Amino acid sequence: MAQHCHQGHRERLKERFLQEGTLDHFTDHQVLELLLFYAVPRADTNPIAHELIEQFGSFASVLEKPVEELEKIPGLGKSSAIFLKLILDSARRYCEEQVDPALILNTADKMVRFLKPKFVGRTKEVLCCVCMDNSCRVVSCDMMFEGTVNAASISTRAIVEAAIRHNSSNVLLAHNHPQGLALPSNEDIVTTQDIKKALAAVEVTLVDHIIVVRDDCVSLLESGYL
């Protein structure tokens, strides 16, 4: 009887989504509940969804939590936790593919448009190294040095080697501050200046270093630090 009740609830929630065609009017726990139908096929996902929101505060926070924390929630095993993590990374992939790959990054606005999707949902600091030709057309884009971005964690040599390997004329750097403001630290400034000098030694220009947070970006060039 309980299983039949759960199945009826699942079908009603799915049908509501099909009729509305959007999740706009669903609460956070209802969205989680709906998603978990496909990861927890035989259990009532309503209490699991409520517990996730109660523990972590919001839909976004749930998706940002590591698998090790998610799988501690009663009823949510490792496979279901991995499923939730895949949602955020899939969303980032989608956002990245909305940017024109032929975009020429010759203004700060274009650089921000290209870079921001690459940091969607990231909860650790990561450095993005974009190698470009002499027209500022992207040749390669690599995410490097996950962790705290400072002089100790960034290998200037690795950035220079990437620029040489891709025969780049210009390099654009970006990193995120997941828990802070889009303001450069002293370490950010010193490290950026060191990288600029190292690239100049091989006739490559560091065009900018941009710091990204969820709703803001700061250009070290426009801020006068380059």
Order of helices and strands: HHHHHHHEEHEHEE
- Please give the order of strands in the largest beta sheet: 2-1-3-4-5
Q: Output the number of helix runs.
A: 9
Q: Approximately what portion of the residues adopt beta-strand conformation?
A: 5-15%
Query: Could you give the count of β-strands?
Result: 5
Q: Residue share in helices?
A: 40-55%
Radius of gyration: 22 Å
The major beta sheet can be summarized as: 5 strands, mixed
Oligomeric state of this protein: single chain
Nearest-integer average pLDDT: 89
Tell me what the structure shows.
With 226 residues, the protein is α+β, with helices and mostly antiparallel strands. The chain is built from 9 helices and 5 strands. The protein has helices at 2-20, 28-36, 46-56, 59-64, 67-70, 78-97, 108-115, 156-165, 186-200; strands at residues 127-132, 138-144, 170-176, 205-213, 216-219. A 5-stranded mixed β-sheet has the order 2-1-3-4-5, sandwiched between helices. The protein is elongated, with a radius of gyration of 22 Å.
Short key terms for the protein model shown above:
226 residues; alpha+beta; 5-stranded mixed beta sheet; 5 strands; 45% helix
